[in-house]
Amino acid sequence: MLFGACIYVLFHLITGFMRTADTVIVMRALSGVGGGIMVPNLVAMLTIAFPPGLMRNVWVGMFGAMGPVGAAGGTVFPGFFGQLTEWWWLFFFLAVFGAVVFGATSFILPPDGVPMDATGTVDYVGAYFGVAGLVLFNFVWTQAAVVGWEEPYVYALLIVSILHFALFVLWEGKFAKEPILPLGIWGSPSFGPMVLSAFMSFMGVGIFLYYVQIWNIEIRHYSNLLTAAANSAFAIVGTCGCFVSAIAVRYLPAQIVMATGAIAAVVAGIIFATMPAQQTYWAQCFPAFIIMGFSPDFIFTATQIITSNSVQRKHQGIAGSLMGTIQMYGLSTGLGFAGTVERYTNDGGRDQVGGIRHALYLTIGMAGASALISLLLIRIPKDQREGWDKEDGGAARA
Known about the structure:
Growth Hormone, Chain: A
């Protein structure tokens, strides 16, 4: 976790010295590597420290809420720095703030005891095939939104990405001695549909959150600070949603909790996609934010708790990494899909509102499909355990 924190701080600091869009993008990508290292280990630390039960649900729910809360609340800082000083001071601030928070964390957290798997090895081949496939597939859809599908290299890279996925499955299933993603965790009949449902929900949420900002900034010409104020409803409701979802997942079947989050995204998408270009914030934008605030927390909390409760204590890192990847990758890949839809429906850039509406229709479709998958294909009973199972009891006491 601290290694990832150092990467995060370092590349945020370097970003403050960049002055071109290309160099800023590269440094932001590298700082994201630090976040990618931290997130699964933070989830694993929570799920290792807290055995299955209500307190685990609450803390995992709180952790999940920090995504939407951080995204919405964090929009205050670009407005503050962008309007009062030069934009690059934002990244110096984030580097210093991160150093303080992560430095304090290193003192607060207890030192590690015996490693969960001291003799384990790293599956470098599997890591390459998996990561390269994900990166290429995401790049294809993002690039297609910019240059269109007329470019031959877009199709070529799509084929290469699919080939990487196929080789990843073959390697993990047949050759890897210690696979980076054990295929055995997919053994539950409902696990695959749960992951697919979560992925499609996060795609819809990512599309919604991005195009809400574009609508308010470019169509309604909100300032940075006014945009941040508009997002505050989402942040507040998201915080409340984490506690509601943490409790709900104990007393309701998983498919109901996940479907509720997906349906919230459908309703919010319909409200936002159908509003006039110019309208008071309180008429449709505000209720859409309120309803959407419950969506990511219900999805993330349910899937993360179900996944972590389904594996042994030593596999909590894998569980956290899997669901963290599904969340982040869904948010990002959804934008590539939506960007492609917008590109081909905005009349060559002359109908920006129409293009955004069609992108938001994709939110409705993705979230609607997620709800159907949850209700029809997922059958995971409510989990009211308190404490570790017998096979993990010794590890927990150690």
